[in-house]
Amino acid sequence: MKLSLAITTYLRYQLTIDSFAQVIDDPRIDDIVVLDDCSPDMSFQKLTAYFKGNKKVRVIRQAFNRGMQRNKFDAVAHSKNDWVILFDSDNVLKKGYLDALEKQELHDNIIYMPDYARPQFDYRKFAGKLFDKSNAHFLVNDTMGNCLLNTCNYTVHRATYMEVFSENPEIKGSDTLWFNYLWLKAGYSFYVVPGMQYFHLQHSGSTWLQHADYNMKTTTELNKKILSL
């Protein structure tokens, strides 16, 4: 099985390069999409120059700023393979993530989640468990479980992801939780993959932190929606 890697980025030239440097030559990934959300600086031009000549990497720029929800969707849409690792540009993907994923028998209606966003977000107590709308309350009502639902950096089936997606203009940094609500509402599941880990960088440029109060409010509202399914 060949994988696509979809990286969304905005004003993150160096972080974007670092995010997949450790897997860029891994043969299991034969398609890498870097989608810049119309950064007003020179990020797109620098990324294009950096990856020039690398046939595996396609650097694409949005015609105008679409926001995180749409940028993620478009990155998946641009991907060539059936299975896509949807990854934020301010985190670091390592080969161990691929090793753990490779052991799984993948199903179209399941999103495959990491069990550890090192060093701070430890989801390993959920490793090996399948969650759908019947038991998602175990995640919603747990601090780390709720973080997991708010975190992307997971592996999706391209066509099913695109089928479920619906843009919500009211959502900012809680865009992943919004999509995950839609995923559960559609009757689909999440599986937390044992040993599937990555490095999660926390920094002041985090889009979630920039609208923290608003995002906390929408997170609470979305949690209620999930619990009502």
Structure description:
Helices cover about 35% and strands about 25% of the residues. The protein is an alpha/beta fold and about 230 residues long. It has a single domain (about 5-225), classed as Spore Coat Polysaccharide Biosynthesis Protein SpsA, Chain A, CATH 3.90.550.10. The strands form two sheets. It has a five-stranded mixed β-sheet with strand order 3-2-1-4-9, with helices on both faces.
The gyration radius over C-alpha positions equals 16 Å
Distance between the termini: 34 Å
Sheet with the most strands, sense and barrel status: 5 strands, mixed
Note the overall shape: globular
CATH architecture: Alpha-Beta Complex
Structural class by secondary-structure content: alpha/beta
CATH-assigned homologous superfamily:
Spore Coat Polysaccharide Biosynthesis Protein SpsA, Chain A
| Overall average residue pLDDT | 94
Top CATH class: Alpha Beta
Total count of strands: 10
Number of helices: 10
How many domains make up the coordinates?
1
